[in-house]
Structures are given as C-alpha cells and as structure tokens.
Amino acid sequence: MSVLKDFVNKNKAQIQEDLINVVKAESPTHDKKLVDECGILLIDLFKERLGADPYVHVQVERGNHLCFTIGKGSKKILILGHFDTVWEKGQLPIRIKDEKFYGPGVLDMKAGIIQSMWGVKALCDNNMLHDKEINFLLTSDEEVGSGTSRDIIEERAKESDAVLVMETPDSGTGAAKTGRKGVGRYHLKVKGKSSHAGAHHEEGVSAIKELAQQIIHLENMTDYEKGTTVNTGVISGGRRSNIVPDYAEASVDIRVKTMEEAYRMGQILTTLKPFTPGIELEVEGGMNRPPMERTETNVELFHKAREAALETGFQLEESQVGGASDGNFTAALGVPTLDGLGVPGEGPHAEYEHILINELPGRTAFIANFIKNL
With 0-12 CB in 10 A as exposed, 13-18 as middle and 19+ as buried, what is 59? Predict the structure, then answer.
C-alpha cells in the first residue's frame, strides 16, 4: 500500500493538473462539438498516461463514447464513467478556494475519471496490475438518460466480473453506494372540451381540473417508508383564462427501490382512469433506469472496498440513495456493481458543485488498492 501512496503523492500535482484541464474542457451534453473536444482530450490523456488506444463508439447527435482496455488477465473489471455535464459553456466559474475545487462537472463526474485513470496508472507503473483486464467505458449522455450508451454499457458489463462506477460518493458522508433507486419518466396528456368560460361554462370539460385531480392522486402514492416517490415536475395547459381548457399535460417522475415496485407503479400509471366524464387520458413513458438493488454481490464488493479503504487510511461506509446512474443498468444484469467511488464533495448539478481537492490523492490511492485486491 505504501508503494501506491508514494506513487500518488509523488504525482499529485500532475493528477490535479490533469483534472483541471479536463474540467476546463467544458462538455454540456447537448453540445456534441464540445463533448467530442473533451473526448479528444481524454483520448490524449489515456494514451499519454496508460499507453491506451481508444475504441470510439461514434454517435450522430450525442458525443462519442470511449472505451480503453489496459492489461490482460482472467479477471475483467469495468470502470464506468461519463464526461458530459449539465452545465452550459461558461455557466459555472472554475476556481480553487479553501481547499475546494469548483467547476462544471468536477464532482459529477470528471474527478472520478481522472482518479481511476491515475489509480490504474499507479498499478501499471509498479507492476501491480497482475492478472487483470481493466476496461474503461466513458460515455457522453448519462445526464440525459444514456439513450445512446445503454446498450454499450450492458454489453460491456456482461463481459465483466465487477463494475466500478466512479460517480461522486454520498454527499456529506463520502460513502460508497450499494443501492440506487430506479427512475420512471411518464408524460400524462389530458383531453377535455373547450367552451366559453362565462356564457357556456357548463358545456366545457376542463382538462386542467382533471389534471389537478390526477396530480393529487399520483403524488399521494409517495411512500417514504417503502422508498417510493412521485413528483410532478412540469405542467402546462389551456389557452386563455376565459376558455374552459380542453388540453393539459404533465411530466411525472417516479423513484422506486425494487423492480417489483417499479412494475406496480408502472401498472398504476398506465391504467389511470378519468375522474371526470368526457375526459380522455393518454400516458406515455416508462422506467428510464431499473433500480440498483442492494444485493449480496454488491455488498460483497463493498466489503472489499472497505478493506481497501482501511488499508489506505480512511473508513468507507455504504449508502442507498435516490439518484440513479449507469450503475443501475449493470446491477440489474446481476453483475456485481459498486457505485459512488469518486472523490468526495458536494453540490452535483448545483452552482456550488465542488470536490474536496485534498481528497483527490487519497481516493486515487484507494481505487488503485481496491483494484489490486479484486
């Protein structure tokens, strides 16, 4: 362990510089040009640091996805990350203050990419990779649901003995994640009948009134003990205040802990009945990501990570969280998956997004030690 720590500490200035450069290469998901420019920088880094040539999954609308393979052996480990961010170019200032590194995507999740790249480099340069094949998969559309990368993620996962997801640890605790909720995205459309709001109010059938009733009905299904939440995040409808509205719509977010609950909630959403005669309902959507359930294999992988952390010099806890990641896909396949292995910090998707910059070397040594022990 001391060899890995010494290597990381010797190179910590370069590790930090690499991270700064990748964060400066801003990569908002919807801007393919910028995302691909960031991807080119990552290709250059992986070539320089690990001698790894990429396999590029070229995309038309989204940024290209990148795969790198390092080492050979019977143990295959998939390191999963994404380099797209929620921030538009220039929206979030980049700065280091009070031992905190602020910047777009530094926490979610460019620090985890650099951390794992240097962790594998520490193993390679010290002849400690042993009988392992390390596959990095860096995707470009995680922030919008992984529509173009899911098949690639699942294909790579099926070939792997373990998946390490380099997303941010749990905020405040720095815990790894053995469970994540599944995410359902539904769109509810309501059709009614318009009429004059004064002269012929009784002839109208209000789509907005119906939508309001449906929203209350759905949100009352939130059950914190069960881990199920329902949130109506966007609504619209109507044309003028003096017209009974004949149309309204809403976007609904569902979070669940188990596939059984995902099925139950899906059945409820897709079989909604109108409260009002004369109303037509249409529901689109479904589960965007399956739950990452806290399975025995995920917990076993966590125990190995905890041992590696203790050897590195810190206590690693586990958590189950409401947010989803690409680890949801791999865990649902039954592949041992551990998430939240990145650098601690706070504020993913918030203007104060940051990592604790002094944690970067220690977490880099940790991930190297964890991989070595697998």
Answer: middle
